UniProtKB/TrEMBL annotation:
The gene is pbdc1. It comes from Clupea harengus (Atlantic herring). This is Protein PBDC1. It comes from the Eukaryota. InterPro entries: PBDC1-like_dom_sf (IPR023139), PBDC1_metazoa/fungi (IPR008476), Polysacc_synth_dom (IPR021148). Transmembrane segments: none annotated. One of its GO terms (cellular component) is cytoplasm. Residues 35-159 form the Polysaccharide biosynthesis domain.
Length: 168
């Protein structure tokens, strides 16, 4: 994943203002383009950190939240039929899928911090975050899918590719 300045380019005051703005309730804003840019930057930074993590550490050893076991168990009970290697956007975004995901997501309110924040999710787990390979999902969807990918060995391709690159 290409590194960019992100929040660092805002400076200390700008980053503090952004952090404060992002902590306010959504109804405090209309469709403010600057706020959308800040959310996009935050989602991008989260994606960059996560991809660097699965590139550097064996994904099977990662613990993403203190509730990984609970998230994974609920995910397997509700969504074990999803193709984790190559996600179909309709399985996250169609009207039927949203109805199926809503109760799953809401059960983690108060358990997983920022469970409903927007986050970037890779469609093909063997590839990096790119415009074509990325979808916007909630944080709990990201956790559920990535925990399942990590435990199932689906993210090993990313880790192994980085390890081979370093050995060359």
């Amino acid at each position: 994943m290409a590194s960019r300045n992100g929040l660092a380019s805002l400076g200390v005051e700008g980053a503090s203002a952004a952090a404060h703005a992002l902590s306010l309730p959504a109804d405090a804003y209309g469709n403010d383009p600057q706020l959308e840019v800040m959310w996009a930057m935050k989602a991008y930074n989260h994606a960059e950190i996560y991809f660097n993590l699965i590139s550097s550490v064996d994904p099977k050893l990662l613990k993403l939240t203190k509730s990984d076991d609970q998230i994974h168990s609920a995910y397997m009970e509700s969504f074990s039929d999803l193709n984790l290697e190559l996600l179909d956007p309709d399985n996250l975004k169609s009207a039927e899928s949203k109805e199926r995901w809503r109760p799953f997501c809401n059960q983690f309110e108060g358990i997983v911090e920022d469970f409903n924040y927007g986050t970037l999710l890779r469609l093909d787990c063997r590839k990096d975050y790119t415009e074509e390979n990325t979808i916007f999902a909630t944080r709990i969807q990201f956790y559920a899918i990535e925990i399942a990918r990590n435990r199932g060995g689906y993210n090993d391709a990313v880790y192994n590719a980085k390890s081979k690159q370093e050995q060359s």
